[in-house]
Amino acid sequence: MKYRKLQTGFTVIELILVIAILSLVFALISFNWVASLPKQNLNSAVEVLVADLKQQQLEAMVGIDSGGGGLMNHGIYFNTNEYITYEGSSYNVSNSSNIQFSLPQGITVSTSDITSDDLVFAHTSGEPTTIGVNPQIIITNQANNIQKTIQLNQLGVVVSIN
Fold first, then answer.
1. Are 109 and 76 in contact (CB under 8 A)?
2. What would the pLDDT profile of 16-53 be if each residue is shown by its tens digit?
3. Rounded CA gap, 88 and 90, in Å?
4. In terms of C-beta density within 10 A (0-12 exposed, 13-18 middle, 19 or more buried), how is residue 102 classed?
5. 113 in helix, strand or coil?
6. Where are the domains of the chain?
7. What fold, for 13-161?
8. What is the per-residue pLDDT across 150-162, written as a single tens digit (0 to 9) for each?
9. Per-residue model confidence as pLDDT tens digits over 43-86
């Protein structure tokens, strides 16, 4: 009687087929992940900016002054690739209490109906003193030209993010 040796395992063709399918799935997943990065960068930049807007308004209302000189206005100065939070009635580049926030690469900021790209919150009331009727902060991702607009009301409250 002849016994046949049992062969177990996978053939080379089966292994190549499984590797090809896994590679295709991995490629699709990584493509979708990479495509979503610019939108994630934009969303995180908007979230941080809104938090900083609220913080500056709160510090103006409470009267926080790092120099100990009493009640002060607080503001945010917008530059193309950054914004700077500061104390006082206007942005002064030489003020040591300024805090600079760089936006992620490819993200830019601009304003509409805000005087000289300088948003100032009045001490005690927290109301903006340098805005027009329809103040907006526009954050743009240059990689895919997606924009988010932060709409403020006359009291400096964020009313919408589109």
1. no
2. 999 999 999 999 888 888 777 888 889 999 999 999 99
3. 6
4. exposed
5. strand
6. 13-161
7. minor pseudopilin epsh fold (3.55.40)
8. 999 999 999 999 9
9. 999 999 999 999 999 999 987 777 666 678 999 999 999 999 99
